[in-house]
Amino acid sequence: MKINPSEITPERLFYLSRRQFLVGAGALTMSTLFLGGCRGKGPEPPPIGAGYCDSVQASRSTDELGDSLTPCQSVINYNNYYEFTTSKEDVADLSRNLRTSPWEIEVGGLVNKPRVYDVDDLRQKFAPEERIYRLRCVEAWSMVIPWLGFPLAKLLKEVEPTSKAKYVRFETLYDPEQMPGQKGLSFYQWPYVEGLRLDEALHDLTILATGIYGKSLLPQNGAPVRLVVPWKYGFKGIKSIVKIDLVEEMPTSLWMATASNEYGFYANVNPEVHHPRWAQSSERRIGELERRPTLLFNGYAEEVARLYQGMDLRKFF
Ligand SMILES: Nc1nc2c(c(=O)[nH]1)N[C@H]1C(S)=C(S)[C@@H](COP(=O)(O)O)O[C@H]1N2
Ligand SMILES: [Mo]
After folding, report:
1. What's the predicted TM-score (pTM) here?
2. What is the overall mean pLDDT for the chain?
3. 313 Cα to the center of ligand 2, angstroms
4. Is 5-315 a CATH 3.90.420.10 domain?
5. Ligand 1, atom nearest to 233 Cα
6. Is the CB of 80 under 6 A from ligand 1?
7. What is the SS3 assignment for 64?
């Protein structure tokens, strides 16, 4: 199997955006100096998401541990979204035309009141609030993101899971016409699927996010609605959700189906349990030079450790 862990350093990210800016400025000067001499070659397009990050909103500049928020430009230009590409720097560009409105989410399975929600209704009903969370990717990089979202529990309570429901299964949009990776990366079993145990799904830290930095999500971050489970590795945070089902059996995620020896169901952040290809004891916080130690449950142990009492946390995932 091929998973591309290509990473760019934050320095390169900033260098890139600065270079794009300089090239743009240069093109402008050239065309002013040599009018007509370079007809047909317009100025460089603006960097992806230009403007989006101009008026960011966050109530604080750090999380509860004092860690600085990751700059908006990094959050929207360094992404994992394999439906588009395995190249983190190219997700923003390749996903820019994803149609995210209108958008419906079908909630069903073992519930008393199955329902189809329009995303705009969800936003109205459950009034997204700010949640500043650390995001820890299994590739050992991390960010601190001010999400806008609402507890998944609110939605689940409304549909009333039956007593048979033990797990929640989530599915991303399947649309190969819009998502080139679903054609090109045919090795994966699309659509992207993820799952949570019902008590994890009902935990207050678990949210459905519809925005970051006070704005609606861009496609690269999982617009219009994605899951965020801050004590688990980032891949559990499934993007662009179209379906949520309450089920009896543990769902098989796309990653479990891809490589069951590397990816399990729980995927709780744990510095002592190494992934076969990436040590997990430390991480690179995007925007920082020094690596920092990884925290058990990504620093949320006080809130969530009780969910796993009696379980062997040394087993990977
Ligand atoms: N549908 C879908 N969801 C996904 C992914 C993906 O490839 N497809 N990548 C996951 C991984 S590995 C990570 S680390 C996070 C990254 O979220 P971000 O790009 O918003 O930072 O999204 C997760 N959700
Ligand atoms: Mo990830």
Report:
1. 0.87
2. 87
3. 20
4. yes
5. 14
6. yes
7. coil
